[in-house]
Each structure stands twice: as structure tokens, then as C-alpha cells.
User: Fold this.
Amino acid sequence: MFKDMTLGQYFPGNSFLHRADPRVKLVALVVYLVFVLLAKTACALGIVLVTMLTLAAVSRIPFSVLARSLKPVVFILLFTGVLNLFLTTGETPLVEWKFIHIYPEGVRTAVYMMLRLVCLVGGSSLLLSYTTSPLDLTDAIESLFGFLKKLHVPIHEFAMMMTIALRFIPTLTEETDKIISAQKARGADFESGGLVRKAKAIVPILIPLFVSAFRRADELAEAMECRCYHGGEGRTKLKVMRSRPSDYVFLLAMALLCAGVVLANRFLSFEVGVFTL
Assistant:
């Protein structure tokens, strides 16, 4: 059920995105998220979508992997689309049937929101987990927010916790799939019955999953203590991060795309059917 989910996985490679400075990728991710949220028209969303597909091509991550990254948010996509479709009102209804009223504004909002979510998940995965190893991600977060150490903020510990959480998403996903297969082999039924019965059927999955997660956490803590890990104080880096000119060009390109989205919202906006292009 969950074996083809790719959220949180790292795919080793030698592409431009793999070689880019992790700090630059984190800043580029923030810029990317900003212009995804700023996109309000079809032209602006088109720029965002092309950017995501270009990042996938540059990173050499197969599009099938990118499509599988959307599996965890399929329900959220559908729920968001249906919610905006039926709850957004306008002037002239597109469809009227009993208590159901669908307006062109609702169709537009639903499509735009679903596209935003697809671009958010896909682009974030490409810039973050797919092309950046957990160790590089930890070092990048610690380096970018290192100034907070002067305020006695344990930034290294926060970065380590975030990276460990991201790293163990695929592990817990695989563990969940194994537990479901084992329970099905013992005759468990997770598909038939009403909502209450399906909710009760989750209990035999959650209990062993929590036990496994706590066991893995305890083993990881013991392993870190055995290796004399006591936080980031006084620790040196095996790999020193250095930015190259190409990294700054990449960051500048992302900033220009953000400006392009803003301009598309303002100057390339016209109505075609129910959509604002």
C-alpha cells in the first residue's frame, strides 16, 4: 500500500541540483514557495508548473517518482478541490441541481488550489529531500540559522531533529506496509465495513507501529551516545560547504521567476471561459 511512496527519500545523483550548495537550495526553496503562493492566474501558475518540471529534468529525477510523491496528499488534493468547488460562490451558477450550486469561480478556485498543492509538494521534494542528503540538510540548516546561537537557541539540535524526522518517514512508511501485510495474513480486514469499523481496524496497525517507532528511537539514541555525540558544541565538519558561481546564478533565476509570477498576475490577466489567464 505504501511501498511506492517517495516522500522523504534521497535519490543519489550527480546532477546540478545534487551538486548545488544545500544552503542555496534552502533559500531557493523559500523563494519557490513564495511565488507558488503568489500565483493567482493561469499564466502565473503555468510559470510555476514549468519551473517544477524544469527542476525535475535538471535533477534527473524520473517523473514517475515525482508523481508518486503526490500519493500522500491525494486525499488533501481531492478534499481541497471539492471544498472549493462547492463552497465558492459567484454571480451566475454554472450548474444548479437541488441544493448543489457550482459557480465558475468555484471551478477556477478548485483547479488553482489543486495545482498549487501539486507544485508545492513536487517542487519542495525536488529541492529538499530528493536531491539533498540528510547530513547536508542538517549542515545547511545549522549554517543558515547559526546566528541564533548567540541568542542561546539550540539550532544544531533543532536541525538534527528535523533531519531525523525527515529521514525516518520512508522507514516508518515501509514498516507500516509490513504491519498491514502481516495483519492481512492473519485475517484482518481493512476495507469492508463502515467508518467506525475501519477506524477500529487501524488500531492493530497503530500499536505495533508506535512500539516500533519508540524502539527505533531508543536504538538511535544509544547509537549516538556510543559515538560520543553530545550536540553541536565544538564539533567540526567533515565536508565544508562552499557556494559556487552557478549556485548564485540558480538563486538569481529563481528570484527572476518570482518576479515573473508577480508580473503575470498583474499584466497577463484576462478571462477565458471560467479561468483567468
Q: What stands out?
A: Residues 16-276 form one domain. The first helix runs from residue 16 to 19. The radius of gyration is 23 Å. Confidence is low (pLDDT under 50) at residues 272-277.
